[in-house]
Amino acid sequence: MLLNIDLPPAAPPPSASPDPPASPDPPAAPRPEDGGAPPAERPSSGSGRPPLAGLPVLRLIRPLAALALLAMILGRMVAPATVGLAVGIERTARAVEIAGAAASQLFALGAIVAAMALIGAVVRSRSPYVLRIAAIVGGSFVILVVLHATVQRVPDLSAALIGVSAAVLALGSAWEALRVPFMRPVAAALGLVGASALVRLAGVFLAVWANERGSKSLAAAAGSVATAAFAIDALAVLVAAVALGADRAARPQAPPEAGQPRPAPRLVTPLSLASFVPALLATRAALAGAAEDASLLEALLRRALDRLLTRPAPAVAPSVQLFAAALAVVVAALALIAPPRLSALGGALALLLVARSAPEVPLSALSLLIAALCVALAARDDRGFWAAVLATERERPQGELPGAGKADLAGAPQVDAGDDTR
Description:
Layout: H1 61-82, H2 90-124, H3 129-149, H4 156-177, H5 184-213, H6 216-250, H7 270-288, H8 296-306, H9 318-337, H10 343-354, H11 362-380, H12 382-395, H13 406-419
Helix pairs in contact: 1-2, 1-8, 1-9, 1-10, 2-3, 2-11, 3-4, 3-11, 4-5, 4-11, 5-6, 5-10, 5-11, 6-7, 6-9, 7-8, 7-9, 9-10, 10-11, 12-13
């Protein structure tokens, strides 16, 4: 019994021929009142659960997000944009279309397996019961619809329902993750994407209703709702750009002294500013692609970015819509190249940006589902999550991160432990 403490027996008198050494008893664990840490192998009282976030599934989130981004660029943007772009590129367009379809199928297979593993991990974690039930019900429904989409076209009602399910789960996961300081930028971006998805689906419903009834007032209301959805979506992309360097900016070189507050994350970092440069260049080229004397690359960029614009169209200038679409692609790519402290968070950030403009598409809903489950798991399973963080830090070269030593790693769990109220 853990509560019974046996006193050691009296020491026997020394003898000339010592007996063979018996198996030594394990050293007594230091008690908390003596200032010692509890033994690592003893689980916390009432828990008994192994660390979940250290499961290998989190290591697959980043390559899975890279595959999702590749499938979106090839299958959704470039392949439709090359059709009829110029004379003599039919074979190239066909090759790009096949490559996009292959990437989409590979992503669908890997994402289904990852989603099922993440649902099981979230159910066994310490997340609220409401979030666990939502992960089971909503996640299973999204997976079933995605499996149905591999055989035949998904009905409109099912497409709308998977978008709502993924958006609601994203809002719940973001609400849970906002209490963890280093995850607040990613959680805010996830919550904004979920809110934008719900508002946009409401606008689609109003537009369909207005078309059936021929009502101009409903059409105007649908345009207003679509504009609100675009505003929330653009804010989500900006928050995602801030999340690129917020973790590195807020990470101290050494633990702060007693009585000193931890530095707040900066909103403007070199990495977030660097994402605006290619987005501005792509927007400028896309705007020039609408002219008759545009080059082949400019016309291709205009057609590709047009595929990311939302419907119904918001009452926003086309240049702003094109910039938001280009910035989302750039930030998703940078989140995979230079992820936050844990690479799974970079993958989740890229996945939610892939799904931002089309939550009713099966693969986009699946991307948003995986991002929500990853964030929810990281917000609650602190032991396994920080084990994965330390493993990631040990894999990096010593010269890659300034001050990545014992002081930095020792200060990381204190951020979560101080703000985690259980």
